Amino acid sequence: MRLLRPRKTWATPVIEEERRSVPCDLCGGARFLPSLVCEGFSYVKCAKCGLAQMNPQPVAESVKVRYGDDYLAYELENEDNFLNLQKLGLADAGFYRLEREVMARKSEPRVLDVGCATGALLAFLRERGWQGIGAEISPSARHARETRGLDVRSATVEDCAFPDGHFDLALASHLIEHLNSPRAFAREMRRVLCPGGRLMLTTPNIGGFQARVFGGQWRGAIFDHLYLFSARTLKALLREEGFAIEGTYTWGGFAAGTAPRALKLVADRAAKLFGTGDVMLIKARKKPL
What we know:
It is a single chain. The chain is an alpha/beta fold. β6, α5 and β7 form a beta-alpha-beta unit. The protein has a domain at 58-205 and 228-272 and 279-286: Vaccinia Virus protein VP39 (Rossmann fold). Helix content is 35%, strand content 24%. 43% of the residues are buried. The radius of gyration is 18 Å and the shape is globular. The strands form 3 sheets. A 7-stranded mixed sheet has the order 8-7-6-9-10-13-12, sandwiched between helices. It has helices at residues 60-65, 69-77, 79-92, 95-103, 120-127, 140-148, 157-160, 182-192, 209-214, 231-240, 261-274, and strands at residues 19-20, 32-37, 42-46, 52-53, 57-58, 110-114, 131-135, 151-153, 167-173, 193-204, 227-228, 243-251, 279-286.
């Protein structure tokens, strides 16, 4: 049986950008091996820890330019689908049980959504009693403020300078793979979370079945993604930055349209059971110093 090539979607076309070589953000290694060859770009993997990354990587100023008005149009077009997927992921990770535990202690717990896009998830959480704040560098932040009345800062989370220990929960869906320094992000998340606060990170899973089958044609290997994590490399990063891992959840056996429906259903169930899904959510708890 022949599998069809998955369709890639992204907001930014392959363009020439200022780039620089950087040490591995996970282990500091400086030796890299070929990993995925895509159309017009490629990834390497750290020879020491195996983290897949674009290296040389675009400088931070070039990365920010990617997320302009075209990106807002992309987010609006996919808003409903993205929200439904986020809800399903949170349910898999036991969010509603966690919500009951937190609300038993606080009447208005605080949640931070980093890379919150149009604010659809924050609006959903507000309806459930959460006091939410978002951080978003694209024009989606303005849309979230003006159309939903949300507190969304047009800045990186580091530039927001939130107080120490301010949030009970931090969410970041399909964000960490876009960042120049995932480690700096994880460190900031630990700082702004209260003792025992939870972090839920969703990102493509390069250790999953689809990535292994499709290689450079894998739909997670897109030009916007500077890093591609496996569960092993992402959990290693979080542990080093003071988090205890509470759960790993994956989903997506075959992309829609790449395999017959019956086979897709079997593969999707297997992805959840064996942790081989195309996308993963890592749930972590802030540990005391």
